[in-house]
Amino acid sequence: MKRIILTAFALCTLNLAAQTEVSTYEPGITEEGITYFLPTTHLQVVVTATRKSYAPGEYAAYARRYLRTNDAVQTPYDEWFITDVSLIPYGVADKQQGYTIKLKSKTSAPLVGMAPDGRLLSINTEAPALPALTKPSVVREKTERPNPADYKTEEILSAGSTAKMAELTAAEIYDIRENRSALTKGQADFMPKDGEQLRLMLASLDTQEAALLQLFKGTTSTETHVFVFDYVPTDGRTQDVLFRFSKYFGPVDSDDPAGEPFYINVRRDDTAAPAAPADGKKSKKEEQDLRYVVPGNATVSITSGKRQYASATLPLAQFGRIEHLGGDLFNKKYTTRVTLSPSTGGILRIDADIPE
Questions:
Q1: Which of 32, 60, 91, 311 has the fewest CB atoms within 10 Å around its CB?
Q2: How far apart are CA 21 and CA 213, in angstroms?
Q3: Helix H or strand E segment including 85
Q4: Domain segments of the chain: what residues?
Q5: Closest CA to 340 of 120, 117, 34
Q6: Sheet (strand 307-325) strand order
Q7: Which tens digit of pLDDT belongs to each residue from 91-130?
C-alpha cells in the first residue's frame, strides 16, 4: 500500500487552477494532482478437494486366496472429493476509470492511501491492510504406518516365489490373531503380569498384523488440495462453466468431457442501483469532485448437476454506479476522513472534525 502526503513544496509545484479538475492519468502523484483508479470487482472461487490415493500391496493378487478378502486394491488409482467451495470478492484497478483530483491553492495536504495498482483506499486516515488472496496449495496428511519389511520373518524372506511368500505371510497373520485371542482369554503360554503389560503385548500384535496386512490390502494416502479460479462478473452474462471436476482426475480443463462441469451463476439484484450511462452528461460540479462507487448487488452461486456448492449475495463495483463527494473534502476549515472498500470502491466510513 502507498501512503502519499502532499507537502507544501509539492503543492507549490502544482499548476493550480481555480477549481478541481478531473482527467485520466497514471496513478499516484503527478503534476496534475492525485490520480487514482476505481476498482472492478473480481471473484476468487476457492475449491478445497481431498485426493485419496490407493496403492496395491505386494501380495494383492493373493489376498482372496489366502485371506479370503475381496476388498484388496489390485491397481493404483486416485479418488477425489470436493469438501468446500467459497467465494471471495477482491478489487482490481479499472484502467478505464482513472481520475485526477487537482487541488486548489487553499487546499490542505491530505493523507491518501492507495493500493499498489492505484485504487484509492482512504483520504486523511490510515487505510486498512489489504486482505491476502488465497493461493493454491497441497497438504499431505501425515500417516504413521509400520514398515511391512520389518515384520517379514526369515522364512518369508527365503521363500522361492511371491506366491510362497504370500502364503507364509498369511500364515503369520493367522498366528498373530491366534496369539491375540489366547492373550485376551487368558490362555497364552506366557501371560502378562499386569494390565499394562497386557496392553503393550496386544498393541505389539496389532502393529505386526497391520504391517503384514498392507502387503495384501495395500495402502491409502490422503492429500488436501486448494484450487483457485478467478472470475470477473459481467453484466449480461448469467452462467459460465468455471471448471470441470473428475472423481478420478480432480480438476480438468473446462472443455474436458472427463469431468463434470461446475457452473458459476450470477443473478443481478433488480433493486441494485443502475450504472450511469456511458454518454451521460456530467454537471460542472461533478467534474470537480472525488469519485466513488455505489456498488450493485448480485447473487453468485456455484452449482454442478442438482447440487449447489456455494451461494452468496455480493456487492460488485461494475454492477453499480459512480457518484462523487464535494470539493469541501479538502477544505482547511475541517478534516474529512474517508475509508473506501478495496473490492468495490464504495464508502465504508466517512466522518469529519468540524471546529466549534
A1: 311
A2: 79
A3: strand 77-101
A4: 56-78+141-222
A5: 120
A6: 250-252, 239-246, 260-268, 290-304, 307-325
A7: 999 998 888 777 665 555 567 888 999 999 988 888 888 9
